[in-house]
Design goal:
single chain, about 450 residues, mainly beta, 4-stranded antiparallel beta sheet, 2 helices, about 0% helix
Length: about 450
């Protein structure tokens, strides 16, 4: 099962700042850097968006590693794909400094940190509230004993010589998630009992619920956790999330999870009531508009809507617009992908008002979300490709940073930029090799 493409709850690389920032002060802001992998070569490279040149490269064990942007924009988690389940962290060297009316960007020397984590089946990566969570699913129960776990790190510790992680051991294997909530609280999925038992090999590794745990002391290395809320009651639709897959934060401190279709299905919306560590939690289920479900969610800080892929099984051939404040979702929230194609890759703009969708026909379509779905532009970005999970042929990648969408073209050895505000093509940069996975943007 894919790990939601390892894109969760980060701000993306700190680049492509809003054009209005250039008018707020007397110098043009730097655009930043774009990190990309190669389909054939075991290397990570960095493209400087100001010069259009590849300036740095780092060796990795296998070609085309996966990426996950980390909240704050400076770091990128690298899923190396080696047998040891190694996750590395790339310091992009991008340092964003806010000056109230604008943001300045400085460029330090990038480096691949010495710190790394290892484990069985690395999957979901979530960051926020100054924390980073790396989830290791563990082996399938019938394959033998394993050590599923969450590796938790303070993001500001990544710049230190020896970051000190906290390990939360999962009670059983699961395709799980850990979401930092602040105030030393974490939302962590609960293993599916049928899967954990291991007798039924058809049981799903996807969880059916969550619990919110509080860490007693900020300096503790392990243990000392207490449950302060539970959303793991299968008898209650508003207190469970059957066959969870897909997560994104929403404005107002809420958290949205994709649950199964059918009776009691829909999106679970969790919200914090009150302030501080003693605040309570509430939940409600937002039903899907029909019998389909989402498995991946995208959101942007401050944006009104989330967007998910929508269908019954792969390939999901529609997109679903989600307003967490809505009393119900309707058919008007559903957008069918042209030609019945897979939704493939999709990302929201920095302000959450537009969506870029790269489909197997090689087109990049730009949509407005509100007041209704509307196609604004379509570009012939790359040749047609296979976007099925595990495809052997090179797969282009889409990343949205601020108001720009970037598309890698492995066949052409190029990376192209498309402006989501002016709806015009920007840079078209030859980088050589077969550029594939791109780092940047957020998702779930």
């Amino acid at each position: 099962m894919p790990s939601s493409q390892l894109r969760f709850a980060g701000l993306g690389l700190a680049g492509c700042l809003l054009a209005s920032a250039a008018l707020a002060h007397d110098h043009v802001p730097l655009r930043g850097r774009l990190v990309f992998a190669d389909h054939e070569k075991p290397v990570i490279r960095i493209l400087d968006l100001d010069s259009g040149e590849v300036t740095h490269s780092f060796d990795v064990p296998k070609p085309n590693p996966g990426f996950a942007g980390v909240s704050g924009g400076r770091y990128v988690v690298v899923k190396t794909g080696d047998e040891a389940g190694t996750l590395r962290i790339l310091d992009t060297g991008l340092i964003a400094e806010s000056h109230g009316d604008h943001v300045d960007l400085d460029k330090a020397e990038p480096k691949l940190l010495d710190f790394m984590t290892k484990g069985e089946r690395p999957a979901h990566v979530i960051s926020g509230q100054g924390q980073l969570a790396l989830f290791y699913d563990g082996r399938r129960p019938w394959e033998g004993k394993s050590e599923p776990k969450v590796v938790m790190l303070a993001i500001d510790s990544l710049g230190k010589p020896k970051p000190e992680p906290i390990i939360w051991p999962s009670p059983a294997p699961q395709h799980g998630i850990a979401v930092p909530l602040g105030a030393r609280q974490w939302l962590i999925s609960v293993p599916n009992p049928a899967y954990a038992k291991g007798d039924d090999r058809s049981a799903s590794p996807r969880p059916n619920g969550f619990e919110i745990l509080a860490q007693d002391k900020p300096s503790q290395k392990a243990g000392g956790w207490k449950q302060i809320a539970s959303f793991n009651d299968p008898a209650r639709a508003d207190a469970s999330c059957r066959l969870y897959h897909g997560y994104a934060p929403a404005r107002g401190g809420r958290h949205v999870f994709g649950c199964a279709e059918g009776e009691g299905g829909g999106l679970l919306v969790l919200a914090k009531a009150g302030k501080g560590a003693a605040a309570g939690w509430s939940a409600r289920k937002l039903a899907y508009p029909d019998e389909r479900r989402v498995s991946t969610l995208r959101s942007r800080e401050g944006g009104r809507h989330l967007v998910g892929n929508y269908g019954l099984k792969a390939p999901y051939d529609a997109l679903l617009r989600i307003d967490p404040d809505a009393r119900a979702l309707s058919a008007e929230d559903v957008l069918a992908v042209p030609g019945g194609q897979a939704a493939c890759q999709f990302e929201l703009s920095g302000n959450g008002s537009r969506l870029a969708n790269l489909t197997p026909d090689g087109k990049l379509r730009i949509y407005a979300l509100a007041p209704a779905w509307k196609e604004l532009a379509a570009f012939d970005a790359v040749p047609a490709f296979d976007c099925a999970y595990g495809a052997k042929t090179p797969t282009p990648s889409l990343a949205v940073i601020g108001g720009s969408a970037f598309v890698s073209d492995p066949a052409g050895g190029r990376i192209r930029e498309y402006h989501l505000d002016t709806l015009k093509q920007g840079l078209d940069m030859p980088v050589g090799g077969m550029p594939a996975n791109l780092a940047g943007s957020d998702a779930g």
